[in-house]
Design goal:
The complex is a heterodimer of chains A (112) and B (109).
Chain A lengths: L3 E4 L2 E4 L4 E8 L5 E7 L6 E7 L2 E5 L6 E7 L2 E7 L7 E8 L7 E2 L3 E5 L1
Parallel strand pairs in A: 2-11
Antiparallel strand pairs in A: 1-3, 3-8, 4-5, 4-9, 5-6, 7-8, 9-10, 9-11
Chain B lengths: L3 E4 L2 E5 L4 E7 L6 E7 L5 E8 L4 E4 L2 E6 L4 E6 L8 E8 L3 E3 L3 E6 L1
The chains are: A mainly beta (112), B mainly beta (109).
């Protein structure tokens, strides 16, 4: 299994909703990442987990809350988002930090 | 602060042409450089990774070079095909992956 899966593919939520994005990999990778990508822009790093511990938080607002329940799963909990948070949210994993990153297909998030 | 720039921003070529995409970065203290492909609205596909100690990597019709001292990398695509149409992103890894601005490539039949 050489892929990273993300669910849901699309998500529409209101500013008062609570929702979660899910990412899964079964490649035995020990590093997992969340990126945010706005239209026609490159991805921007949000969080990095290494061996299930948060190692990088790129000053992301607290309305985004990551969670790594086990070595295969990475969640991103969303609460009280703003319309400007609408973007493609990409998950990636790598064998270890500084190794090739494998990306999932992304979740297209729209905040109304 | 590391900055990564890609030139050109967009490129449209007929099928069969050989192409060169350029990437430059401001800080040469990197672990590696990666080239990715992204189709519209989709995730990224890793194409090539060059470690900081390497000069080039090849995969099929793709060849990537790295000149760390001058802060440059090129991605060479041989005999381009319509299926190569996508956005190509380079990214350098220092303590995190920093992406360039991308080159949007269209190959027409």
């Amino acid at each position: 299994d050489t892929e990273v899966t993300q669910t849901p593919k699309h998500l529409v939520m209101g500013m008062t909703n609570k929702k979660s994005l899910k990412c899964e990999q079964h490649m035995g990778h020990r590093a997992m990442y969340w990126y945010k990508q706005k239209a026609k822009k490159p991805p921007e790093l949000m969080f990095v987990y290494s061996y299930e511990k948060l190692s990088i938080n790129e000053s992301v607002p607290s309305r985004f809350s990551p969670e790594c329940p086990n070595s295969s799963l990475l969640n991103l909990h969303l609460h009280a988002l703003q319309p400007d948070d609408s973007a493609l949210y990409l998950c990636a994993s790598s064998q270890d930090l500084a190794d090739t990153q494998y990306f999932g297909p992304g979740t297209r998030l729209t905040v109304l | 602060k590391q900055e990564v720039t890609q030139i050109p921003a967009a490129l449209s070529v007929p099928e069969g042409e050989n192409l060169v995409l350029n990437c430059s970065f401001t800080d040469s203290a990197i672990y590696n450089l990666q080239w990715f492909r992204q189709d519209p609205g989709k995730g990224l596909t890793s194409l090539l990774l060059i470690q900081s100690s390497q000069r080039e990597q090849t995969s099929g019709r793709l060849n990537a070079s790295l000149d760390k001292s001058s802060g440059r990398s090129t991605l060479y695509i041989a005999a381009s095909q319509p299926g190569d149409s996508a956005t190509y992103l380079c990214a350098v890894e220092d303590d995190k992956l920093i992406f360039g601005t991308g080159t949007r490539l269209q190959v027409f039949p």
